[in-house]
Specification:
binds iron/sulfur cluster
Length: 240
């Protein structure tokens, strides 16, 4: 049995002995007391799955704070101590939003990072394995490659949207180091985490002129992409 916790760098073709299913003795134990930040795409997919607006989702299931050094909004799942620190979505039968669970839950026990070379600006993808002593998943017999595990988690859109978010944060840090002004913080949060309200502001012309093609009410992924591009252009001076 594993007795330590560690992050270990892994390659896509490395073997990964891991499985998680209702039969493991630790089933559900990991869905509590986490510090689980949500990406804008996590929020979009979860609120769509639950059939609520972004605002209702944020109010009911998340905590919000602002990064003191950056002024960037940080939205986390609310692990309520009244419920013994459980995730708001965990039930005795497992995750009730399994099909729409956040990217970090999908990828566990792996974590993914994108690095950009200072020399030539190229990006590279890296994976690490998080071995936790309490997780019996590593004691299961199923073995696959890291690549197979990642491919099975339906993360293609997550990677695309989250890489775009990383670009946005890198741009912010480069051209706007230090905390954002309050008004910028509010605008950024609205654009990234409350696209319903952002759409209303855009549609009524209250905040900015419409730019680009019409985006239908159902196309919330495109709206989020547009919102992120808006932030990069209008708040951080990105030219493209
Ligand atoms: S969203 Fe689902 S998988 Fe993720 S911590 Fe909550 S219950 Fe667990
Ligand atoms: S095997 Fe690991 S991931 Fe699965 S329920 Fe247990 S602690 Fe959580």
């Amino acid at each position: 049995m594993m007795t330590t916790e560690a992050f270990i760098a892994v390659n896509l073709d490395d073997p990964l002995r891991f499985d998680c299913h209702p039969g493991v003795s630790c089933f559900n134990n990991c869905c509590r007391d986490l510090n689980q930040a949500l990406t804008p795409y996590d929020v979009l997919r979860l609120r769509r799955h639950l059939g609520v607006t972004s605002r209702e989702f944020l109010r009911s299931y998340t905590l919000e704070h602002t990064g003191p050094a950056t002024g960037l909004p940080i939205i986390s799942l609310h692990f309520d101590q009244v419920r013994q620190g459980l995730c708001p979505f965990v039930t005795s039968a497992g995750c009730r939003v399994y099909a729409a669970r956040p990217a970090s839950c999908r990828l566990y026990p792996l974590a993914r990072a994108v690095r950009r070379s200072r020399a030539d600006g190229r990006t590279s993808i890296h994976y690490a394995l998080f071995r936790e002593a309490h997780c019996q998943g590593f004691e299961q017999s199923r073995t696959q490659t890291v690549r197979t595990w990642v491919s099975a988690q339906d993360l293609k859109i997550d990677f695309k949207m989250n890489d775009a978010l990383m670009e946005l944060i890198a741009l912010k840090n480069r051209f706007h180091p230090g905390p954002l002004a309050i008004e910028q913080q509010q605008l950024l949060k609205l654009a990234l985490y409350d696209p319903d309200a952002f759409r209303m502001n855009v549609d009524t012309g209250a905040m900015t002129e419409w730019e680009g093609d019409a985006i239908s009410a159902e196309d919330d992924i495109r709206l989020l992409e547009w919102s992120m591009a808006w932030v990069m252009r209008k708040l951080f001076g990105h030219k493209h």
